[in-house]
């Protein structure tokens, strides 16, 4: 069993930055891929970025060049650095984990294959 907890959301203006954190607890946390997903009002949940334990990454096209995912295995924490934020990035952002041997980061993101989900953190980009 794994638990994941997100933090770092908030309200910013367009062009500003935020860093989200996802901390996993459990003895096998470092064997799990971690993904960031988001859901805007009235829209389906989508995969934003996912990372394997060995730092293989995936980004959805709309965030490439603006978002950076990274992980600190010693702290069981994955970060999502979000730069040049746009109003369309406004959503609830969720962190999820899945055993790495079961899925690639790309498939995890595209097919929403998180096994353990956090409660979400709100990101609002507005002037």
3D structure, described in words:
Helix content is 5%, strand content 48%. The protein has 127 residues and is mostly beta strands. The strands form 2 sheets. Strands 2, 4, 5, 6, 9, 10 and 11 form a 7-stranded mixed β-sheet that branches.
Brief rundown of the structure:
With 127 residues, the protein is mainly beta.
Q: What's the SSE blueprint?
A:
Blueprint: E1 3-7, E2 10-12, E3 18-25, E4 32-39, E5 46-51, E6 57-59, E7 67-72, E8 77-82, E9 91-99, H1 105-110, E10 116-117, E11 121-125
Parallel strand pairs: 2-11
Antiparallel strand pairs: 1-3, 3-8, 4-5, 4-9, 5-6, 7-8, 9-10, 9-11
> Helical proportion?
under 10%
What percent strand?
Answer: over 45%
Number of helices: 1
The chain-level mean pLDDT equals 95
Sheet of most strands: 7 strands, mixed
- The N- to C-terminal Cα distance equals 41 Å
Q: Low-confidence stretches at least 5 residues in length (pLDDT < 50)?
A: none
